[in-house]
């Protein structure tokens, strides 16, 4: 009988308000016209039925049948005759309007008879590759042949010795499509049987690299056998083994092969066997030329890495960071790029090219740590941070901000002077040092460079002062650096000098921070005696706040030196204000040194990895940069603290 069905029946609940409206209108038909209400209700219900996926299920009288016939080598002559007899008898019982097809299969499926009506079965003519049995592929082909407007049925005639594909992966699909599956089990050949189930090998290796392979042999009973491995027809390994009933795994190592494609064959012999034609398994390996490595970094940092590569017989090209190729056409000549303690600023826009090389061309990237790399190398907010398998700070730092950093900048009128002058800036000189730049602009540039070295979870603040203090940005994580730089760019040098006002405001803000390191950097060129600095320093110490000072030009060196000493920081006397950016960057790096762990330890292996292959022991190490793995990263070595 015909019946209604719904793809999304829960959406029918939307019809309840419409039904209530119709009942309401019927009860008050004198005041509410039923016509418009009824029409709108019909439209609404039609939309709801459409959303619910209403369908009319009509009875299907016509049948479409696909006979899936196993013709692999394990099916003997007697079973093949039984298959054909079964099909002949089944076809004779079909109605004239029913359609049927025959698909034979072994390693691949073949259409022996296309889907069509008919009452005569003339036998099987197709001959598939019988070395394997792939039931899954036959099922997929049959599903493509049977039309969805028929009652569909698959009839499987096999001994079930599947050794390629996985038929059960199609079970849910068949059930969802309403396809019936019938099976005729064949006993298969009696007697002892062994077969080479498979050979797993790397698809590609490098010249000089040893191959590690895994072979699998199946047996239906315990037996002695010989398992042999051939490379391009030449035996390279052989094992006398005792097979157990079921699957047996064997490992092989093959010495380096020359560049090119190589056929590797697993053979099983000298065992009781009914059908020896399935006693080989094949794998193909491509041996590429030697790895072309580009080693980037300062000579002192490259040295140990280059020595290790050359000791392994690997050719390496060494360059300073500024000489690293900046175009994809030149970088693609290398299989792997190694950065040895290279800061992000040394590569600049080349980092984008390097990212393309790794992500789109699949080249390798190795980043060797050091005091100018990772977080200390300003990798935050660069393509390197996205490429690396680790976060740039330890997990504990990500749970609690590692650094709260406030730059306190003097914007008094004297900061509008150029370095080394007491008046307005003059025209660029014809020769000698670079053009004169106002000290306030150098302080802005210094802040710009320093903040880029801090991580997104670090709390960043910028405060300016003249006679009073004013926040450009209060300390907070995930700071919008572009907004800070934009606001800072509008600051002009004017007004008096009240260092105490600036410091007191910064201290008050950092007292509320839970960061592990709370640090203030003061940049000024002026004198200021206003305020109780001693009490302010005591308050800083009580809340774990440290202070460094940068004296730009004249200024009160005694006061700044005392503040830095009592504040647990560093004092920088700058004769040339052009040195301020470099000094502030250095100061920022000193603050970040909390992620450097300097202690002697012996790393502990964790997950097995080809990286550790051949190592018989691990030497003691004397320090590392704290990081934490990203989701999905494989950690090979850990420190004792992890």
What is the level-2 CATH architecture name of the largest domain? 3-Layer(aba) Sandwich
Average residue-wise pLDDT: 83
CATH superfamily of the largest domain: von Willebrand factor, type A domain
Count of domain modules: 5
Instruction: Describe the global form.
Output: elongated
% residues in beta strands = 25-35%
Tell me the major beta sheet.
Answer: 6 strands, mixed
CATH domain class name of the largest domain: Alpha Beta
Helix content: 25-40%
Strands, helices and their partners?
Layout: E1 3-6, H1 15-27, H2 34-51, E2 54-57, E3 63-70, H3 77-92, E4 99-105, E5 109-116, H4 135-145, E6 151-158, H5 171-176, E7 180-185, E8 194-200, E9 204-206, E10 211-219, E11 223-231, E12 234-243, E13 246-254, E14 260-269, E15 280-288, E16 293-296, H6 299-311, E17 316-319, H7 328-331, E18 336-340, H8 350-359, E19 364-368, H9 383-387, E20 390-391, H10 395-399, E21 403-410, H11 439-452, E22 459-465, E23 469-476, H12 481-489, H13 499-510, E24 517-524, H14 533-542, E25 545-552, H15 557-566, E26 568-574, H16 580-592, E27 596-597, E28 604-605, E29 624-625, E30 628-629, E31 637-638
Parallel strand pairs: 3-4, 3-6, 6-7, 9-15, 16-17, 16-18, 18-19, 21-22, 21-24, 24-25, 25-26
Antiparallel strand pairs: 1-2, 4-5, 8-10, 10-13, 11-12, 11-14, 14-15, 20-30, 22-23, 27-29, 28-31
